[in-house]
Amino acid sequence: MSEAERTTRRIRIGGVEVGGGAPIVVQSMCATRTMDIDATIAQARQLAAAGAGIVRIALDNEKEVAALREIRAATPGVTLSVDLQENYKIADKVAPHVDKIRYNPGHLHHIEKSRTIPQKVKWLVEVARDHDLAIRIGVNCGSVAPAFLEKYPGDQLTAIVESAAWHCELMEEYGFDRFVVSLKDSDPAKVVEANRRFHQRRPDVPLHLGVTEAGLPPDGIIKTRVAFERLLAQGIGDTIRVSLTLPNERKHEEVLVGHKIVEDVHAGRFISAPDFGAGLNIISCPSCSRVENEKFVELAQQVKELTAYAAKYKITIAVMGCRVNGPGETDDADLGLWCGPTTVNLKRKAQKLGNFRYDDVLPRLKSEVDQLIAARSPAN
Asked: Quick one: pLDDT at residue 142?
């Protein structure tokens, strides 16, 4: 891949440049609780030391702003991005302490329903401009804005692309161009198609690549490489994030994997995985500060071990660690485990099967897997 193939404009995020001929930036996200200031400072430093050009931190509410202020003061050499989650209203409070804000177009309708989406985006632009920040428009498969799902019924891919494109137009209408876009899905094929479509439409806009909920290594790494290799080799992608389900002490491995993928693509080294995705598919979100019980990572590993016998069956199991991704992103899976603080919500597609303690959910999950296998066996 030659640098000349990338046609996007270059933007500045703190001390980092993204897009155009700038080197591809590998980034990651702190998995520690933001209110645990010392642990989050340590992890931000850990990720930066591993080669993360940008480190993202999630904030849920205004109470965490004071913690962010201390984290920023202790990490002066780290380029920080903040994930606004479902509370865009705190943007002006966090802005003095970060270099970039990320908002999800699919979450803007939740709060201040009396204000229009354009009014909310204009305010975010004003905050970013006043504080010399960049913005990421982060569209996610599990939380696409309802207006776009209604406009393109049964065509989620088009809804994702159109939502991102519209928000770009809003930014530019308000005279702001320091933004990147991400279009994420847990299915590598959809990630490739969404980003290809968007890039054809807006070849000037820098792209942040990610396969959301890629899962546990090594499958999560393969899943990510399948998407990134195809896109990067075509000059699509300016910054990347590898999303793996890992314990906190191994979180920096996301960064190492990201650099390895970029290095291999530059050198023309690609993996061959023709049958990947043909059988059991375990989706699990990356461990992050939103996880409500650290046993989530252990549970994801246990699910993988428990269901190994079903490897040849095309069954999708989603293991989600928080309320942001849990409800929506388990709906499309054959079986979903949405992990709360003390219990796990077990689902069959959108149907809730019940709440179970972490130690009790696995036997019921196995029973559900057995039923799926029986229903899909040739004899049936």
From this structure: 81
